[in-house]
Amino acid sequence: MSATAQNAETATGAGEQELTDGFNLIIDALKLNSLDTIYGVPGIPITDFGRMAQAAGIRVISFRHEQNAGYAASIAGFLTKKPGICLTVSAPGFLNGLTALAHATTNCFPMILISGSSEREIVDLQQGDYEEMDQLAIAKPLCKAAYRVLHAQDIGIGIARAIRSAVSGRPGGVYLDLPAKLFGQVMNAEAGRKSLVKVIDPAPAQIPAPDAVKRALDVLKSAKKPLIILGKGAAYAQADDAIRSFVEKSGVPFLPMSMGKGLLPDTHPLCAGAARSTVLKDSDVVMLIGARLNWLLSHGKGKTWGDAPKKFIQIDIEPREMDSNIEIVAPVVGDIGSCVQALLDGMDTKWPVPPADWTGAVAKKRDENIAKMAPRLMNNNSPMDYHGALGVLRTVIKERPDAILVNEGANTLDLARGIIDIYQPRKRIDVGTWGVMGIGMGYAIAAAIETGKPVLAVEGDSAFGFSGMEIETICRYKLPVCIVIFNNDGIYRGTDVNKAGDDPATTVFVKGSRYDRMMEAFGGVGVNATSPDELRRAVNAAMDSGKPTLINAVIDPAAGSESGRIGNLNPQSALKKK
Fold first, then answer.
1. Lowest mean per-residue pLDDT among 99-108, 128-137, 238-247, 383-392
2. 553 to each of 368, 412, 476, 485, how far by Cα in Å?
3. At 183, which CATH number?
4. Other C-beta atoms within 10 Å of 88: how many?
């Protein structure tokens, strides 16, 4: 039974009409479009809406901070291909959710930020309403689309437009502004039902042009040292079988970006993840599938890519992405699934495999690097270094390939990307294109809720600080989340010293912090692990039990480096250089 039918006001007098209101129309519109989970923080003017949505069968996950609820909604969109819903209060709550909305847009995650707002007539005259703010104007530059609904009869269309905008073409964040007065607006229930819209085919297939497909195959076929790069767009597409078949039929080594890992296992014989530097420098033809030539790939130029001349093939749903940094000689525009299938269909039975000297050189370099790294991953030092701790977690994921790995930090993120192998698609989720810290707990909560799978969240101690209070949310909902905090007493390292005064250095935290005791305060399991052996036992126990667990993994304060592997992006003082 719909929320309208359950909650509509029925007049007692004979012949009087059945009524509904904005509250129920919003709920019915969401349910009609199978949007059955809301992430948010209650407060004026959406507290009653959250209660009513919950009573109507929508799962409402109540967070401690809107930014974390927004991150949860954003990754829910990535995992499900349906827009994740974040619900916030007006003004300050809206602003808290805005970072996550911009994050979703930058990362191409479908998400809808729904915020209550002050009344238009007061905002427009700047008369000082409660939490007055022109939220629509502020949101517009930071999202894919922004809409405001002023009348109850437009709720169905407003939500339909938001859904279609979020998932069609290149996915992204959408803002939907709902003034407080809208919720209480009353209208005829039958007219309300008719005003609702079930969105049909919100993300229609976009078939690539045959000429573009042929051009791309011709360029790939001519390559002596080809490389395929798989980005998170390829993972989002859920065209897993086609992508796997295409890579294997082509015989081309592939390099997965961090959230593209697992489309083919990192242990696949064609995986070049452990030979990244070699394949980027020496390749002559590079095919990008759902990956962008942004800072994560050094914009396709410079030392990272070496001196060897290169031709680029790019598959992307957004035509404007082509030639964004360098020339793309074979652009293929369309959705990933349709494009890869078209490429697969265009490969004849006599498709030439890449030269053996290339594939052999890649395999040799990969195996050498893996062998070189292996002893570092097996140490049992106490306090731990990053490699010893990550070696443990590498084994945990190998034994539990269905678990979802959430990862953020500086060294904790950068080293884990290369050390922990992923075996299935969409099992590794991290900071993405922006490199923003604070996604950890929101991601972990949404991953557990949307997939029902156990979650292992591997956090730097600094990154955890952005969203740490959400461990109460994890305990409240009894989610199967195991959090491992790599605690080295600071940002990058815990050894910096302030030589100019008594205050701690800007990158140093309280020595010997016990994050595990925070988890115990909320009824979860807390463990302090000082060696890889202790860490292994604690993580396995947590994953077996499914209980909310936080492990304080004590890392040598001197371990780590400035900004992990991207310290070059931190400008040095000109005076210091002199």
1. 128-137
2. 29, 12, 23, 6
3. 3.40.50.970
4. 31
Same domain, 190 and 248: no
70 lies in the same domain as 112 = yes
397 lies in the same domain as 508: yes
Query: For position 14, what pLDDT does the model report?
Result: 46
Claim to verify: residue 86 and residue 187 sit in the same structural domain: yes
**For residues 439 and 403, what is the distance between their CA atoms, to the nearest angstrom?**
18
Euclidean distance between CA atoms 501 and 513, whole angstroms: 23
CA distance 149 to 197: 14
Separation of alpha carbons 301 and 293, rounded Å: 9
User: Tokens at residue 491, please?
Assistant: 């940002």
540 CB neighbour count, 10 Å cutoff? 16
Number of domains in the chain: 3
Confirm if 548 and 536 have CB atoms less than 8 A apart.
no
How far apart CA 164 and CA 174 sit, in angstroms, is 10
Burial of residue 322 (CB within 10 Å: 0-12, 13-18, 19+) is middle
The residue segments making up the domain with residue 470 are: 378-554
Residues in Cβ contact with 307 at an 8 Å cutoff, skipping those fewer than 6 apart: none
DSSP conformation class of 133: -
Give the pLDDT confidence score for residue 132 in this predicted structure. Answer: 80
One-letter amino acid at 126 equals Q
Q: Which residue has the tokens 């829910």?
A: 76
Domain boundary among the residues 330, 363, 396 is at 363
Shared domain for 171 and 228, answered yes or no, is no
Question: If we measure between CA atoms, which residue out of 55, 65, 107 comes closest to residue 86?
Answer: 65
Give the count of alpha carbons within 13 A of 514, CB side only: 7
- Could you tell me the pTM of the whole model? 0.95
Residue 466 structure tokens: 């952005």
Across all residues in the chain, what is the average pLDDT? 94
Across-strand partners of 406?
429, 457
One-letter amino acid at 371 equals A
Average pLDDT over residues 90-105: 97
Domain membership flag for residue 93: yes
Question: What span, in angstroms and rounded, lies between the C-alpha atoms of 472 and 485?
Answer: 16
